[in-house]
């Protein structure tokens, strides 16, 4: 019993280590009182005997969980097709990664791997202090990528705790690992973080989990949303060349070193959003063509490089020469291409490219490091406040032109239309290409379908808000009753009304309405031009599912004690 008590209290205290911000979800019984160390195994107990008794009760429950866990181990041994073997990780059944991946739901059990071992954490999922939504992201896979994001996990007593759930070892020669098909054009794509919610693998398109998105004003590179149209090129930075040519330009070629040494270095923190962000909400009205993005095809980074206007002026194009050449657009071509050799391309107006107020970059760093391959290594265009589709990655060519880019993605995609337009009547020439995006916001936490205890007495909400064109966010309104009553959220981020390239994060803690068993939470943002979001999706539905910015809604349940 003493051992079970010690282990149970360790699990409780582990909550604050795993996720300090979410510890209140686990420590309802004040187990987080001043503590004293009682063993060299890093177990802790509260000073108060009252809480120790509660801890004993929890310990009994956890002890039962450990017993059940041992039963699962026995069942797992019988179920495994692998033989028990002596491994560097220890004695126990050996599992393939394929076997582990099948245990990714509460019904099948939640298994994870760490440093060559396999763990069944089914019994812990509901008690994870950061909420089950985060820890379940690793279900059926490896813990290492997630613990890398939350370095506080990397402590001895957390690892000691994890050992309690060990059921075996991972096969050395994992049968689920296969060599990449060398004929596959995507075979050389980079590795990606497993937390990303994948829309398509080839080309790779993925968004971060909503519950991670609003944790930081600047999104970690590993979970920044990825929008690829073609295979990711593998470019040698020492051989990289950027060509600048076109109307009024003396054609020049710049190396990466030239960009770093011939021009002033400039940094901009900017949010980037896919035109199809929140497309899934339009699909609920009527199916559209395009990736089924949730509300997380948006991220923010600090971009560093050189101003596009400096590069253009170096090549001979400036405000005075534009009038002489009649150049209206600056086109961009990427190094990514299809099997025919056609490359991804886009363009922005020449006035934006040359403006001192637009902060358009030829960037080579992302959050203080070289831009990762998925995001455009070694150089990409960053046009703050402009739809992600124009922020061309793997930038290899800049062209001054009288015309927009002739690329499919500029001429026949990423345009908005009336809800009455369908694929039989659409005329892509009749609509301008999307540049600046409209104001939007979203609820990141709680997630859809979350269960809130009425005993809490309150509900905490958080999310993001952003508007294109550098328009700052002046207010975020949240409602617990689908817009009948509103509350003003608190904002986090730079207090700018112009050249506000980065999003604002918002949060609010509101009292739970009495007697309610369900809540429909919604949010709307207002930008510095007093643009606000439309109430519903239907009036802004369009056949490509772009520009989806209606009030964002999340439905949650309120659980009352019987």
Characterization of the model:
The protein is of the alpha+beta class. Helix 1 (2-18) crosses helix 2. Mean pLDDT is 83; it is low at 1-88 and 175-182.
Provide the fold topology.
Blueprint: H1 2-18, E1 35-37, E2 44-46, H2 49-79, E3 85-87, E4 90-92, E5 94-95, H3 97-101, E6 104-105, E7 109-114, E8 117-120, H4 122-125, H5 132-135, H6 144-149, H7 156-163, E9 166-170, E10 197-201, E11 204-207, H8 210-213, E12 226-227, E13 241-246, E14 252-255, H9 256-262, E15 266-273, H10 279-283, E16 298-307, H11 308-314, H12 319-325, E17 329-337, E18 343-349, H13 350-354, E19 361-366, E20 369-370, E21 380-382, E22 395-401, H14 408-411, E23 440-445, E24 451-453, E25 458-466, E26 473-479, E27 487-488, E28 490-492, E29 504-511, E30 518-527, E31 552-559
Parallel strand pairs: 5-9, 13-22, 24-31
Antiparallel strand pairs: 1-2, 3-4, 6-7, 7-8, 8-9, 10-11, 11-12, 13-14, 15-16, 16-19, 17-18, 17-22, 19-20, 19-21, 23-25, 25-29, 26-27, 26-30, 28-29, 30-31
Helix pairs in contact: 1-2
Note the main attributes of this structure:
562 residues; alpha+beta; 5-stranded mixed β-sheet
Sequence stretches where pLDDT stays below 50 over 5 or more residues: 1-88, 175-182
Span between N and C termini? Answer: 31 Å
Q: Could you say which overall geometry the principal axes of the C-alpha atoms support?
A: globular
| Helix share bin | 10-25%
**Main beta sheet strand tally, sense and closure:** 5 strands, mixed
Find the structural class using helix and strand composition: alpha+beta
- Mean pLDDT across the residues is 83
Q: Write out the strand line-up for the largest beta sheet, numbering strands in chain order.
A: 5-9-8-7-6
Strand content: 25-35%
Give me the number of helical elements. 14
Radius of gyration: 27 Å
């Amino acid at each position: 019993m003493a051992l079970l008590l010690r282990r149970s209290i360790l699990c409780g205290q582990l909550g604050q280590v795993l996720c300090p911000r979410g510890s209140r979800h686990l420590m309802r019984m004040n187990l987080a009182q001043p503590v004293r160390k009682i063993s060299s195994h890093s177990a802790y107990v509260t000073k108060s005997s009252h809480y120790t008794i509660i801890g004993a009760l929890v310990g009994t429950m956890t002890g039962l969980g450990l017993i059940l866990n041992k039963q699962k181990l026995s069942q797992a041994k019988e179920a495994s097709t692998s033989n028990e073997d002596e491994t560097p990780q220890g004695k126990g059944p050996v599992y393939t990664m394929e076997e582990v991946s099948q245990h990714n739901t509460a019904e099948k059990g939640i298994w994870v791997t760490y440093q060559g071992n396999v763990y069944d954490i089914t019994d812990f999922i509901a008690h994870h202090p950061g909420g089950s939504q985060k820890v379940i992201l690793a279900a059926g896979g490896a813990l290492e990528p997630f613990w890398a994001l939350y370095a506080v996990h990397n402590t001895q007593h957390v690892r000691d705790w994890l050992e309690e759930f060990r059921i075996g070892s991972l096969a050395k020669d994992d049968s689920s690992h296969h060599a990449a098909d060398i004929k596959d054009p995507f075979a050389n794509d980079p590795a990606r973080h497993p937390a990303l919610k994948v829309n398509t693998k080839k080309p790779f398109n993925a968004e971060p989990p909503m519950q991670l998105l609003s944790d930081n004003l600047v999104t970690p590179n590993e979970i920044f949303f990825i929008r690829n149209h073609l295979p990711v090129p593998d470019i040698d930075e020492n051989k990289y060349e950027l060509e600048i040519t076109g109307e009024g330009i003396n054609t020049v070629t710049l190396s990466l070193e030239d960009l770093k040494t011939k021009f002033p270095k400039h940094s901009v923190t900017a949010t980037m959003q896919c035109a199809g962000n929140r497309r899934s909400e339009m699909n609920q009205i009527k199916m559209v063509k395009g990736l089924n993005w949730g509300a997380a095809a948006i991220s923010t980074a600090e971009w560093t490089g050189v101003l596009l206007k400096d590069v253009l002026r170096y090549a001979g194009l400036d405000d005075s020469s534009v009038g002489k050449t009649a150049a209206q657009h600056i086109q961009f071509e990427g190094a990514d291409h299809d099997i025919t050799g056609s490359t991804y391309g886009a363009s922005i107006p020449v006035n934006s490219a040359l403006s001192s107020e637009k902060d358009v970059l030829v960037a080579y760093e992302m959050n203080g490091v070289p831009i990762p391959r998925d995001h455009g290594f070694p150089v990409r265009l960053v046009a703050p406040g402009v739809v992600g589709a124009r922020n061309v990655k793997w930038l290899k060519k800049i062209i001054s032109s009288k015309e927009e880019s002739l690329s499919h993605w500029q001429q026949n995609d990423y345009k908005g239309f009336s809800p009455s337009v369908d694929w039989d009547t659409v005329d892509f020439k009749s609509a301008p290409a999307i540049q600046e995006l409209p104001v939007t916001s979203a609820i990141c936490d709680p997630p859809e379908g979350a269960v809130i205890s009425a005993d809490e007495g309150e509900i905490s909400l958080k999310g993001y808000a952003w508007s294109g064109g550098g328009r700052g966010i002046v207010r975020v309104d949240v409602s617990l009753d689908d817009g009948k009553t509103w509350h003003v959220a608190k904002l986090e981020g730079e207090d700018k009304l112009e050249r506000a390239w980065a999003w604002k994060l918002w949060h609010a803690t509101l009292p739970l309405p009495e007697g309610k068993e369900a809540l429909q939470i919604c949010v709307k943002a207002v930008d510095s031009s007093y643009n606000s979001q439309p109430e519903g999706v239907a009036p802004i539905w369009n056949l490509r599912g772009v520009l989806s910015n209606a009030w964002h809604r999340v439905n949650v349940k309120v659980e009352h004690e019987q």
